[in-house]
Design a protein that fits this description.
Layout: E1 2-10, H1 14-32, E2 35-40, H2 45-51, H3 57-64, E3 68-73, H4 77-80, H5 89-99, E4 104-110, H6 123-126, E5 130-136, E6 146-148, E7 155-157, H7 163-179, E8 183-188, H8 194-206, E9 214-219, H9 220-229, E10 236-239, H10 241-255, E11 262-266, E12 272-275, H11 292-304, H12 308-323, H13 339-352
Parallel strand pairs: 1-2, 1-3, 3-12, 5-10, 8-9, 8-10
Antiparallel strand pairs: 4-5, 4-11, 6-7, 11-12
Helix pairs in contact: 1-11, 1-13, 7-8, 9-10, 11-12, 12-13
The structure holds 3-isopropylmalic acid (IPM) and manganese (II) ion.
3-isopropylmalic acid binds at residues 75, 90, 93, 245, 278.
Length: 353
C-alpha cells in the first residue's frame, strides 16, 4: 500500500532522529512491499526563523493531507532563556495538537531485558514493568486562560476541563485497558483541585459501563512515588495534560533512558508520532542522540495504519540492536554508537530478518 507521511523534523536533534526513523520505514517499505511518500514541512524554531510562525499554514495543510505525521522535536535555548519572547517554538507543537484535535497522547513504558541493568532503579523492582500513560493533550492548564497583571507582578494560568473532554479521554483509556490487562488508574489531585474532582466524578459515572475493568485512583504526588517504587503495579494510567507530561518523563527513568520512549498523539484528524524527549540542543548536529524513541514512534505509526505486523518488525529489530548492545552513548558510554549507525543497524536488521 501507499501512504503519505508528513515529515516534521523540527529543531535540535529532531532532524537526526527523524532521519533514522525514515530509514527504518524505508526498510519496511522494501521488505513488506509498501511505499511511503514523505513530505517535509517546517515546525518550531526553524519555522520561526524562516517564516516567523512556529506552525505555518503550509505545515498544517501538509499534516491534514497526510495519513500520519512523523515529528522530531522542537525547542531552542535562545527562547528558553528569554521569558519575554512573544513567539516560542513550543507554541508550534501546541497549535499542531490543538488544530489537529489530538486530544490523546499515548506513551508506552516498558523495560528492555538486555538494558535493564542500565536503569538507575534496581532490577528486581522494574523487571516486568509495562504500562501506558494516556495523557490528555488539548486541554487543562496548557490551554486555559493565562495572563499577567498590569503591574506585571502577578501571573496566572488556569486549569480548565469540561466533562466531554474528560469523558472522551477516559473512554479511550478504557479501550486500552480492555486490550491489555483490564486495569485503569486515574491520576489527579482531587484532594485540592476542582478540575480533578470533575475527572473523578466523570470516571465514577462511567465505571458502570466498564465493569470488566478494575479502576483505581491515585493522587499525582503519590503516583509520582509509586512509579519509582512499584512500577509493575500500573497497567493503563490516564491523566491530565500537565500531570501526564511530568509523569511520562519520570517513567522514562525505568527504561534507563528518555531516548527510548515513543508516543502517539491521536484524535480527530491526522495522528502524530513523536519521541517523548525534547530537542536536546547540546547534542544537535553531533550524531550522538539515541534514535530509538523516534524509531519506536514510527512503529506506533505503522500500528495506526493497521500495519501491526510491520510495527512488530521494527520493534524486533530495535530489540535486537539492544541485545547486541549496538547502542548510543546515553545507554553505553563505551560502546557509544552514533545516531546514524544505530539507525543503519536497525534498518539492516529489518532487511535481514
Ligand atoms: C512533550 C513536551 C511538550 C509538552 C513541550 C515541548 C511543549 O515536553 O511533548 O512532552 O510539554 O507537551
Ligand atoms: Mn514533556
Amino acid at each position: 500500500m501507499n501512504f503519505k507521511i508528513a515529515k516534521l523534523p523540527g529543531d535540535g536533534i529532531g532532524p537526526e532522529v527523524t532521519e533514522q526513523a525514515i530509514k527504518t520505514l524505508n526498510a519496511i517499505a522494501n521488505k513488506a512491499g509498501h511505499s511511503f511518500d514523505f513530505k517535509e514541512s517546517l515546525v518550531g524554531a526553524v519555522a520561526i526563523d524562516e517564516t516567523g510562525d512556529p506552525f505555518p499554514e503550509e505545515t498544517f495543510k501538509n499534516c491534514q493531507d497526510s495519513d500520519a505525521v512523523l515529528f522530531g522535536a522542537i525547542g531552542h535555548p535562545k527562547y528558553d532563556n528569554d521569558p519575554k519572547a512573544k513567539v516560542r517554538p513550543e507554541q508550534g507543537l501546541l497549535r499542531m495538537r490543538k488544530s489537529l484535535g489530538l486530544y490523546a497522547n499515548i506513551r508506552p513504558v516498558n523495560t528492555f531485558p538486555s538494558q535493564i541493568h542500565k536503569s538507575p532503579l534496581r532490577k528486581e523492582l522494574i523487571e516486568g514493568a509495562n504500562f501506558v500513560v494516556i495523557r490528555e493533550l488539548t486541554g487543562g492548564v496548557y490551554f486555559g486562560t493565562r495572563g499577567r497583571s498590569e503591574d506585571l507582578n502577578m501571573a496566572f494560568d488556569t486549569m480548565t476541563y469540561t466533562r466531554p473532554e474528560i469523558k472522551r479521554i477516559i473512554e479511550l483509556a478504557f479501550g486500552y485497558a480492555r486490550k491489555r490487562n483490564n486495569k485503569l488508574t486515574l491520576v489527579d489531585k482531587a484532594n485540592v483541585l476542582a478540575s480533578s474532582r470533575l475527572w473523578r466524578e466523570t470516571m465514577q459515572d462511567m465505571v458502570g459501563d466498564y465493569s470488566d475493568v478494575a479502576v483505581d485512583y491515585l493522587f499525582v504526588d503519590n503516583a509520582a512515588m509509586k512509579i519509582i517504587q512499584e512500577p509493575t503495579r500500573f497497567d493503563v494510567m490516564v491523566t491530565g495534560n500537565l500531570f501526564g507530561d511530568i509523569l511520562s518523563d519520570e517513567s522514562s527513568v525505568i527504561t534507563g533512558s528518555l531516548g527510548l520512549l515513543p508516543s502517539a498523539s491521536v484524535g480527530e484528524s491526522t495522528a502524530v508520532f513523536e519521541p517523548v524527549h525534547g530537542s536536546y540542543p547540546e547534542g544537535a548536529g553531533k550524531d550522538i542522540a539515541n534514535p530509538i524513541a523516534t524509531i519506536l514512534s514510527a512503529a506506533m505509526l505503522l500500528d495506526h495504519l493497521n500495519l501491526v505486523e510491520e510495527g512488530d518488525m521494527i520493534r524486533r529489530a530495535v530489540e535486537k540492536s539492544m541485545d547486541d548492545n549496538f547502542v548510543s552513548e546515553d545507554l553505553d558510554k563505551e560502546v557509544s554508537k552514533k545516531c546514524s549507525e544505530v539507525g543503519d543497524y536497525i534498518a539492516n536488521c529489518i532487511l535481514q530478518a
